[in-house]
Amino acid sequence: MNYRNLGKTGLKVSELSLGSYVNFGDFLDDKASTKILREAFDQGVNFFDTADNYSNGKAEISLGKAVKGLPREAYLISSKVFFPTMQGVNGRGLSRKHITESIHASLKRLDLEYIDIYFCHRFDPDTAVEDVVQTMNILIKQGKILYWGTSMWEPYQIIDAIRYANNANLIPPVVEQARYSMLTREEVEKERLDICREQNLGLFTFSPLFMGVLSGAYNNGIPENSLLAHDDYAFRRGRLTPKVISKVKALAQISMDLGLSTAQLALAWLLRLPELTTVITGASKMEHLKENLSAINQGEKLTTEVLDRIDKILSD
Ligand SMILES: NC(=O)c1ccc[n+]([C@@H]2O[C@H](COP(=O)([O-])OP(=O)(O)OC[C@H]3O[C@@H](n4cnc5c(N)ncnc54)[C@H](OP(=O)(O)O)[C@@H]3O)[C@@H](O)[C@H]2O)c1
Predict the structure, then answer these.
(1) Which of 4, 25, 84, 89 would bridge with 58, disulfide CB 3.0–4.6 Å?
(2) Residue of the CA atom closest to atom 37 of ligand 1
(3) Which residues line ligand 1 (CB under 6 A)?
(4) What residue owns the CA closest to ligand 1's atom 14?
(5) Burial class (CB in 10 A: 0-12, 13-18, 19+), 133
(6) Residue 103 structural domain
(7) pLDDT per residue over 169-195, tens digit each?
């Protein structure tokens, strides 16, 4: 495993990490989640991502059980707050009240004393950014979180938070978590890369395989036992357009030439960016996890010529 610096925090994060959306507390029982997490940990993965709303809190419970007994200093855990998780009009968002209630519930479900990195899952237009920065600083002072970050915040919203924190002598966000894959490039490449570089902000990326599509698993229809075969995810089948599938098939030709699977090519391609801290992968099958973790150290195969071939397919 390779480790990358999270901005200037001194934290080292494995360049491939494991998320718990859908797989933990939903597709997998606790025993199977533990097996997946322990395999990842044994292969050097030291960061595990979750959120208060994943599987209605069951993902945090399952993740907490999976790390039980591992040395606390050997791994990093994140969780997130914003989406509705509680009854009533105040059971959501980034108000100090909801954040306080949500962090208590998350720590209880995870059965941990603190969360390493706490994300504001989205920007909340109803809460002043100054209030959010202050609340995060209170949680840091209380020892409930160590660092905080944003997810899918617009660059100007992140800048507002950093500016206010610096002026008020408070701790600014240290990382942005954003969607990024071969099929979803804009939000990172056009909107967030510059600010991450300029502000020394960590960049964690999610949905690296476009929820599995970039592995080629859907090239010939929807296999039984796949995410998109599941009724709850039927609404995402719209992703499987003929154009997308033809791009994935063209990428498969390149990956074959390089001796990689299509999923490995898609992950190795993400890792080419030095600004990126970690790619948060999602897998519920052991063979997928192992295949994905083998995407490290493949960078030398991505020559300028290969990158040009990939760009041509993606921009068509
Ligand atoms: N901040 C946010 O708003 C946000 C949003 C979404 C996700 N996330 C985080 O990012 C993590 C990853 O996102 P994601 O789940 O969308 O990632 P993803 O890797 O794009 O999609 C996961 C899907 O890909 C399949 N898959 C993975 N590796 C495969 C392989 N080698 N071959 C074939 N299929 C493969 C998985 O199937 P199997 O399950 O069958 O292995 C699963 O259905 C989440 O767990 C979560 O922690 C954050």
Answers:
(1) 25
(2) 283
(3) 19-23, 49, 121, 151-152, 177, 206-212, 215, 217, 227, 263, 280-285, 288, 291-292
(4) 207
(5) buried
(6) 3-315
(7) 999 999 999 999 999 999 999 999 999
